[in-house]
Design goal:
Blueprint lengths: L20 E2 L4 H13 L3 E10 L7 E10 L3 E8 L3 E5 L3 E6 L2 E6 L10 H14 L10 E7 L3 E8 L2 H4 L2 E9 L5 E8 L4 E11 L16
Antiparallel strand pairs: 1-8, 2-3, 2-12, 3-4, 4-5, 5-6, 6-7, 8-9, 9-10, 10-11, 11-12
Length: about 220
């Protein structure tokens, strides 16, 4: 995939210090991403989460299993340091911890939503893995760059309310397979939340009960 010669569409500009160069042409990329999303509807993998904040001496680390279904449902099953289930659906956030289950609506006006940060993350994950980056172009500036192996897509919010929460969100994908390796959320207060993904399993059915708080199969 992506065998359209990214080297020929890279803008001839200095890299950004991390080896990434901006893409001068993105139409072919968007077409390929849409094609890929139709072939690989579901994904499950391991994840490692790191939270870095000014008030933390060291990064806070957690890990577990990640599931994505092509209806834009996302599930994080945290195994370490403690058990936690977090499910992000198109209209709600479900959470289970210590036997307590909570449902928070994601739809609403501005910051009155139950968890606006998760609502924005769900929107951007859906746009990326669903192959429809054009869906967020009016709300986010989108920048594309490549280092030869990874494709980096950066979302920069335009909406003032979203800017109160987010500075930018970066998604790193393997250039040939479109597998997501890392998601980095930079909050407006300077904190950073990152997810690294590994051991991907793709194109398999994921049971609907995975995205509820009922009994699930792993």
């Amino acid at each position: 995939m992506l065998a359209f010669g990214l080297g020929t569409v890279l803008a001839q500009k200095p890299d950004d210090g991390q080896g990434y160069k901006p893409l001068a042409e993105t139409d072919s990329l968007l077409v390929r991403l849409r094609e890929w999303s139709k072939k690989i509807p579901n994904v499950k993998c391991d994840f490692r989460q790191e939270k870095r904040a000014a008030l933390l001496l060291n990064a806070s680390v957690a890990s577990g299993r990640f599931y994505y279904r092509n209806d834009a449902s996302v599930r994080f099953t945290y195994e370490q340091p403690e058990r936690l289930v977090l499910i992000v659906r198109p209209d709600s956030l479900l959470m289970e911890m210590d036997g307590k289950r909570t449902e928070i609506p994601l739809k609403g006006k501005g910051l009155k939503r139950g968890n606006p940060l998760m609502a924005e993350m769900q929107k951007l994950v859906r746009a990326s893995l669903g192959g429809d980056l054009q869906a967020v172009r009016g709300q986010y500036g989108v920048e594309y760059a490549s280092n030869g192996r990874l494709l980096r897509i950066v979302f920069i919010p335009k909406n003032q309310m979203v800017k109160q929460m987010l500075s930018r969100v970066s998604i790193y994908m393997e250039q040939e397979s479109f597998r997501v390796e890392e998601l980095v959320i930079q909050e407006s207060n300077g904190d950073t939340l990152s997810y690294r993904f590994s051991n991907h399993v793709e194109s398999q059915e994921l049971p609907g009960e995975l995205f509820t708080l009922g009994r699930v199969r792993k």
